[in-house]
Amino acid sequence: MDLKEDMSAMEVRLVMKNKGWQSNDRLTNMGWGKDENGNLRYGYSIWFERWDWHGVRGNKVCIHNHTSNLTKINKITYLAAIKCLRAWKEFTNSVPTQMADGNLEEDIIQTPFFLKSKREGKLNTKELATMHDKLMQRND
To answer: What is the top-level taxon of the source organism (predicted)?
Structure first.
């Protein structure tokens, strides 16, 4: 299933799960300040994470979005997911990190380890499990 802009936040998260991304969200008043009447303001945050990047297991890649406008939950979830998919296409030879302004840049700490593992042909856990399953089927 492909992402569609009119999907609910949960539908987007399920699509992303099937594409290898885990997600977490939070609705809280912590850190969002107060409104013009002095009432605590609530905000929503969504994080998409994955521990493998193009077949290499490493530290997690985390892409997130936040809003204090609770009517925008579906929209920001969709936008975060689109950013994840764009990162997957654009960062094939490096690992992305999200900066404070929301932009993605090459992670200067993770990328050298990623490239070394890629050169050495280290496989991630999922790929190893798939290989194991295929070998076990041959032995049956």
So the answer is: Bacteria
